[in-house]
Amino acid sequence: MSVGIVLLIVLACALLAGAGAFATSRLAMRRRFGSEYDRLARELGPRRARAEIAERQRRVAGLGLKPLNADQLARYDGLWNAAQARFIDGPAESVRAAAALVSGVASDRGYQVTDGAQFITDLSVHHARRLDGYRQARRTTERASVAATEELRQALLACRAIFRELLGTGAPRSTGSGRTLQLTRSTRTWRRRLTGLGRNARRRLPERQPALRAGR
């Protein structure tokens, strides 16, 4: 076998190995960051998307994120239940309160929430799979007074999902304490309560006036 053929074989093997490593890296990114990676890859290209994510990771690592203590967990548990309970009679106010709680718990964890765009970018490092829903929830919250009941219900669910992740990321592991057990039971209750929330709201709340729908 000539030297040229050997070199071609070596080169082909190197190219195949590189392509395999690239595919594996891309798959890992998609598994971890979901649609957020896909969006960045479309806008920037795969290599620049990975560089952007790496930069985000470095920034968030520098924020000094910290877990919440038991008192904070219990307080946020009560605040969420109160906000959610307001949905039937005041869905817009309920969603606004839920959105404020997301910002509150994130701030207590160490995120910088005053710049909304940067806040969402920072959330993508640990909560990428919740970002699409949360982005839509923020848009709905901005127009909550004219949003349809179903839109508000979906916004509340999206806020709940990322709120629970932010809360749960800092939640202490089971220590046998009554407070931790009570919080765990409460988070299961949130799912049961919200499952039928839209149906109850549609039965009890009047439909939006046509003028409001046309104005959206």
Report on the structure:
This protein is mainly α and 216 residues long. It folds into two domains: 16-61, no CATH class; 70-205, no CATH class. The protein has ten helices and no strands. The radius of gyration is 23 Å and the shape is globular. The N and C termini lie far apart (73 Å). The model is unreliable at 13-24, 169-188 and 201-216 (pLDDT under 50).
Structural class: mainly alpha
What would the average pLDDT be, to the nearest integer? 76
Instruction: Provide the domain count.
Output: 2
Number of beta strands:
0
* Fraction of residues in helix: over 70%
Which stretches are low in confidence, meaning pLDDT under 50 for 5 or more residues running? 13-24, 169-188, 201-216
Please trace the helix and strand order, writing H or E for each element: HHHHHHHHHH
Largest sheet: none
- Rounded to the nearest angstrom, the distance between the terminal CA atoms is 73 Å
Helix count, DSSP H or I runs of 4 or more residues: 10
Shape: globular
Task: Give Rg in angstroms.
Answer: 23 Å
Report the β-strand fraction as a percent range: under 5%
List keywords for this structure.
single chain; 216 residues; mainly alpha; 2 domains; 10 helices; globular
Short description:
The chain has 216 residues and is mainly alpha-helical. It contains 10 helices and no strands. It has 2 domains: 16-61, no CATH class; 70-205, no CATH class.
Q: What is the topology?
A:
Blueprint: H1 3-44, H2 46-61, H3 70-85, H4 91-109, H5 116-127, H6 131-142, H7 149-169, H8 178-195, H9 197-204, H10 210-215
